[in-house]
């Protein structure tokens, strides 16, 4: 069967061809016709079966058909309401579904938006304000934006709940119920889940209509059959060494390594980096930016190995991923299927290698029972398992608690070390600030007395008195002090009006000096008087050279100097108190 036989419209067929889709997968063959007819759907399918396209393609086609019947919107689409809502548990999976909608609907006039937590919401809010047809969201951020009034779900026609069992495992089931309460009852609901536990069955019975279509795709019939699975029995201390050995001696261009714990993922990534193998780790404690950066580096080939926890197992979709390593055997068999489903996508070949220690043998047998086959053992490696007896479960749990406590102690010591460094920096800054505050105080201390002057030398006080007398002589018109002003002898300073009053005011405080000026205007009056003064006269312009020469002679005689050189030095105003123009000064200099 082909997509054309499923009655997919031409624009979507072109997009699917551009994405490399040749024919639909089994779940797509069963789901697409039911969704196109408007029926509710309950699909039990694992990752890697093509379930994203199974609901994305028919949703796009249904919304596009409604657009053809609706009139064009003059506001450019700002009046668009959310008509399809896709709810998914993780940020990574939300981004992948968003990318799929954009890829399949590239030739359609539909708008898609994605919202998730861990990042600033401003860009997401702006995208919502521009109008959205399809919204992909995680439960937490969706409820936040609903509470803030940025999202209304009263126009939703199609509701998709993806990875429902993972929603339950991550504690989002109450958030999902809040979202369902906001959606109209008359809607089409599509529910996808790898397993159907009782809580998910309860939600399905409540939101799905009785004529729903039920689809089940078993793991043994899809992903597991296309993946080459192997197991290596190895002691726990030798697991990192075995991983390095296989990565260096096998043709493995890229690998995804799964661990049970977050600090285990970080530890494995560090050990690989020490062995000169580029590796990054992602888990729930990483920020959204760090997780996306690590995932992008892995997709681009800048990093060869990506170490992840089970939370990220369903949120990673990497094309051409050839190898998956189970560093720790998962305790739940379904988790094993989710992990290895990252390789062998869409029926392609892939390899899954699991490291099993003696205490994980029981978990391995449960996995083999679930998938219905025995996993072959890989014995060609230098670290065969030496332990022959499993540790009792109570002892194993105690060891795990001890390892967790040791890791917590290391983290606490690292935090205290960072706090100590911060405290030292703060103390150093406080010491520098205190030293800076002491400098002005030191400047106010009395200066040390100068050493006695040599015999015959003038003391500083005598030198100051001599300078004062010279300045007084210049002011009083002393010919010896100012020989150029011999022709204009002025009265002594003590005989000038106001001199005695000025002398008596000297040494008084500022307030007393101000009060001892009878009849003097205040600062406000002086400012007003200065504004009322006559404007400065314009420079005098000479139109006749003979007139200019007469003024030069008069100017020289009046100041007691017939030298034009002295005019260039002293002459700044005409006798009529008009400033000389630039033309006049220029001619004098010539």
UniProtKB/TrEMBL annotation:
Coiled coil: none annotated. Residues 32-214 form the Helicase ATP-binding domain. Keywords: ATP-binding, Cytoplasm, Helicase, Hydrolase, Nucleotide-binding. Residues 1-29 form the DEAD-box RNA helicase Q domain. PROSITE patterns: DEAD_ATP_HELICASE, HELICASE_ATP_BIND_1, HELICASE_CTER, Q_MOTIF. One of its GO terms (cellular component) is cytosol. This is ATP-dependent RNA helicase CshA. It catalyses: ATP + H2O = ADP + phosphate + H(+). GO terms for molecular function: ATP binding; hydrolase activity; RNA binding; RNA helicase activity. Its EC number is 3.6.4.13. Residues 242-391 form the Helicase C-terminal domain. Residues 390-416, 463-478, 538-552 have a biased composition (Basic and acidic residues). Pfam families: DEAD (PF00270), Helicase_C (PF00271). Residues 427-455 have a biased composition (Low complexity). Belongs to the DEAD box helicase family. Residues 378-590 are annotated as: Disordered.
